[in-house]
Design goal:
903 residues, alpha/beta, tt1808, chain A, Rossmann fold, 7-stranded mixed β-sheet, 7-stranded parallel β-sheet, 27 strands, 42% helix
């Protein structure tokens, strides 16, 4: 069978087990079953590979691809969408296709166009017809409802701050459609209580169908069950168990009525396999089982009774344990959001959960509780990018992935594998390295790099390979919380590349284009303002051409058509260097790749069929040189056997020498002779097959063990001058307005010693600074660059309140730049110590009230007696209680604190 036929066979099988009846269009009968999948059905855009019917209506499309296309699945989304939006032959006017799949014989991806910012996701198999029928019954979706959940408010003060932060962080993560989230919370801080609250809100507001609470021992399951049963929501008079059906799984059956299922990973695996499980197998965590120690992955197959869409949410308790290494198939089976709970995450935990830590509450915190235009260069340097890493062979399996199909498998390492920065994303894929770069880019983009912008500037990311590009795309969408249209691949292999490029140039989306070579040279995209290099370039000319993508000028009106928040003509672009490309040694060497759009097979067959041009020979030499670096010793020996003693390097060198004038002169042979000799090896089919097979099947190791960390994120080149200009502008602002703006007058004159600055005064300063594009973050960053040793925090805590810290620092009132809240906390400590050292001895209850006053001043600048009848004071007795504690001198005390804490 051809690869395409093989893929279709597997896709047919998956559809069959998922409850679909397969038909050819010649036998089309949509009433044959509730769910019918028709092959090659006609549309205005041509025949779609599969058209899905539910209850006789067309509702979905499947774009089928051979396995080698696995690395390009994000590209095929455009093709699926085209079919979905095309007119279906004979269909009733107005019928819409809501669902789209892209599938090979190995992987399947799914998009529900009803989702806001619809984003494809990998799924284990196709959803069942009855599932899609249920979803079709409503235009709303779980992912959309997740965006409308009201902000969690602890009105009854039943939650710790860390729990409130965790719930809010988790719901933000849900709203951004992030598939995995990690809650790190110290032991005893209430992880399960937090999780149950999140479950309650998911059931109430999001209307999820079913949630799985996954543990690794029966005892933990029992504990969780007890907590669920006894949980009392803060907006209900009934217990959780009276509102929703909770079921701890103890057999191979899951009641369809269950809304919360509690299960061990072992039992869920046995349920999916249709096997019995003795309860004794749930007594200890599976990490201690003999099979786990041997690193035997737990494979699962499709279970029609419990399909992948059975659970909407999976909560993984104690997720720092390696259940997601050995038992990951169980987690990957379900098309569900995953939430990890742990007090002690390790590197693998952060890796698995894509470093999406929605809330972090450590043990220490628990203890304290308390255009042609110029360009600028921004440097992002990470530890693994610079130094690589080592995968230790310590008895645990590592994940390996086929470069093209992206098929994954687990394998034990026989020896340590050490890789360098240049090997990343070729031989070894470390998603943490990619994610660290993309996350830093996101975090710095609208604060330091393009402050004041509301949307991501048009950005090109340069990737090493198609596979690397696909990884970047998926991580970028995750990190920015955006859909498919936000970030797209533009490469030669993409059939719709021109359309995507046109959209990138003229439309709002995509904001980010990821490319290997296609738009690296000769492509004019004027609105591009940012180039992110995630590949090094050693050719000086090529690098200059790549930089040229950002140098075009653009007037404000045209720029705003695609970037609405731009406020001036395009005046610069930014190179974000994440691989040292601006520092690496550049050469004048000719680029080997002359035919980047021609496949390796076609280059070899071109030579076999008589191609003797320099471009073909040079391009093939470049491909073989890259492959030579990737072959193992055994593969090198195999190549020598099929090439009559030649090495792959010799074969590539002969191709280059045939067009090297110096070599021709020294060889004593004519160029025609050298060309013919270089071509001879490729007449051998076995040699061609070997090269193609070696290139296709060479695995990449997926390093989920080494978590990357950021070393440097800073401006390079002329940034110091720009920072100095910002500070100079800030100084001039103070000088020009010291008699016009009240807060400046108070600080400039020294009256702050006796007169507090109010929040309204600070808002006036903030408004005027905004008019001058001098944000708190930008000024803080400038001072951090110029006077790093005096800046004690990397960023401000409040963009409003911390303006006062900037003013005080610039005017010399303070010698260090710290967040205003830190100043208030420090001054409060000194003030209370001084008070207690004198005749006044505050009681414990008085101290608690004074701390509330301190916190109010830190967030509102000053306090008045009237404020004591507002939150949080009103929940503790308000002004009356404060009076009873501090007597007639309470107003004087408040005035004293307003001055002392701002000192």
């Amino acid at each position: 069978m051809t690869p395409e036929q093989k893929a279709r066979v597997e896709i047919d099988k998956k559809l069959g087990v998922s409850g679909w009846v397969l038909q050819d269009k010649t036998e089309f009968n949509p009433a044959a079953a509730p769910g019918v999948a028709v092959r090659e059905f006609s549309t205005d855009s041509g025949p779609v590979d599969y058209l899905l019917f539910v209850d006789r209506k067309p509702i979905g499309v499947i774009e089928a691809k051979k396995s080698e296309e696995g690395q390009n699945m994000t590209v095929h989304e455009t093709q699926s969408e085209r079919y979905a939006k095309s007119g279906i032959k004979w269909a009733v006017s107005g019928q819409k296709i809501r669902f789209a799949y892209e599938a090979t014989d190995i992987i399947t991806r799914f998009t529900d166009y009803a989702d806001d910012k619809a984003r494809s996701r990998g799924v284990f198999s196709f959803h069942r017809p009855e599932t899609l029928r249920e979803w079709l019954a409503s235009d709303d979706t779980i992912r959309n409802r997740m965006k409308t959940v009201p902000i969690f408010e602890d009105t009854q003060k039943r939650f710790r701050d860390c729990q409130t932060a965790a719930i809010r962080g988790l719901e933000r993560s849900f709203a951004e459609n992030r598939p995995r989230a990690l809650i790190q919370m110290a032991t005893g801080a209430g992880k399960t209580y937090t999780a149950i609250t999140a479950v309650y809100r998911l059931l109430k507001y999001v209307k999820v169908n079913r949630i799985l609470f996954l543990v690794d021992t029966r005892n933990l399951g029992k504990q969780a069950e007890t907590e669920f049963i006894g949980y009392m929501p803060n907006d209900e008079t009934r217990r959780f168990s009276e509102l929703y059906d909770i079921r701890r799984l103890r057999s191979g059956n899951i009641p369809s009525s269950s809304q919360v299922c509690i299960s061990t990973i072992q039992r869920m695996y046995s349920i999916l396999k249709g096997e019995d499980l003795d309860e004794s197998s749930e007594e200890e965590n599976p990490n201690e089982h003999e099979g786990a120690l041997k690193g035997i992955p737990r494979e699962v197959v499709y279970n029609a009774k419990y399909p992948p869409e059975f659970f909407d949410i999976i909560i993984i308790d104690e997720c720092h344990r390696s259940i997601y290494n050995i038992w990951q198939q169980v987690l990957d089976y379900f098309d569900a959001f995953q939430i990890g709970l742990t007090a002690t995450p390790d590197k693998r935990t952060f890796g698995y959960f894509a470093e999406n830590v929605v809330s972090e509450y450590t043990h220490e915190q628990a203890v304290l509780d308390n255009v042609n235009v110029g360009y600028d260069t921004y440097i992002i340097e990470t530890e693994i990018t610079q130094n690589g890493a080592t995968l230790k062979a310590f008895g645990q399996p590592v994940e390996k992935r086929d470069r093209l199909t992206r098929a994954k498998r687990w394998e034990m390492l026989d020896e340590d594998v050490t890789y360098s920065g240049p090997q990343i994303d070729r031989d070894v894929v470390n998603e943490s390295q990619i994610r660290t770069v993309i996350r830093t880019f996101r975090e710095k983009l609208l604060t330091e790099i393009f402050p004041g912008r509301r949307e991501v500037p048009k950005t090109i990311i340069f990737a090493k390979t198609d596979s690397h590009a696909d990884d970047i795309i998926q991580i970028t969408r995750d990190e920015f919380g955006e859909g498919n249209s936000f970030c797209r691949k533009i490469t030669y292999k993409e059939k719709s590349a021109e359309t995507t490029l046109s959209n990138f140039r003229n439309s709002y989306n995509p904001r980010i284009a990821v490319t290997v070579d296609m738009i690296a040279t000769g492509t004019d995209v004027k609105p591009v303002e940012c180039l992110l290099f995630m590949r090094d370039v050693r050719s000086r000319n090529y690098f200059e051409q790549m930089k040229g993508r950002g140098t075009r000028t653009l007037m404000i009106d045209d720029l705003q058509k695609v970037t609405p928040s731009a406020v001036s003509n395009k005046a610069r672009f930014v190179i974000v260097d994440a691989v040292g490309v601006t520092k690496s040694l550049k050469t004048e060497s000719r680029p080997l790749e002359r035919k980047p759009g021609v496949s390796l097979k076609d280059l070899m067959m071109g030579i076999v069929m008589g191609a003797r041009d320099e471009d073909t020979f040079t391009s093939l030499a470049g491909r073989l040189t890259k492959l030579d670096k990737e072959l193992t010793s055994a593969e090198q020996k195999q190549y020598s056997e099929v090439s009559n003693g030649l090495s792959l390097a010799d074969t590539a060198k002969a191709l280059l020498n045939a067009f090297d004038d110096d070599y021709i002169a020294q060889s004593g042979k004519t160029q025609a002779e050298l060309v013919e000799n270089a071509a001879i090896p490729f007449y051998e089919p076995k040699l061609r097959d070997f090269i193609l097979d070696a290139r296709r099947t060479h695995d990449q190791i997926i390093d989920n063990f080494n978590i990357d960390k950021l070393n440097v994120a800073e401006w390079g080149g002329e940034y110091k001058r720009k920072a100095e200009d910002d500070i100079a502008a800030f100084k001039q602002f103070i000088k020009d307005n010291k008699d016009e703006i009240t807060a400046l007058t108070i600080l400039y004159s020294g009256a702050w010693r006796t007169r507090p600055i109010t929040l309204q005064m600070v808002e006036e300063v903030y408004t005027e600074l905004q008019k001058r594009n001098l944000s708190t973050e930008r000024l803080w960053s400038a001072y951090g660059y110029i006077e790093n040793n005096k800046v004690k925090a990397k960023s401000p805590v409040s963009k409003l309140i911390d303006i006062v810290s900037l003013l005080r620092f610039e005017l010399g009132i303070t010698t260090e730049l710290t967040p205003y809240s830190d100043t208030v906390n420090y001054n409060f400590m000194r003030w209370t110590m001084a008070k207690n050292a004198g005749p006044v001895q505050f009681t414990h209850e008085q101290i608690e009230w004074l701390r509330m006053v301190k916190d109010f001043i830190a967030s509102s600048m000053a306090i008045t007696a009237e404020d004591l009848d507002l939150a949080p004071f009103n929940r503790h007795g308000g002004l009356g209680k404060f009076y009873s504690l501090f007597g007639d001198g309470y107003e004087k005390l408040l005035d004293e604190m307003n001055i002392a804490l701002a000192a």
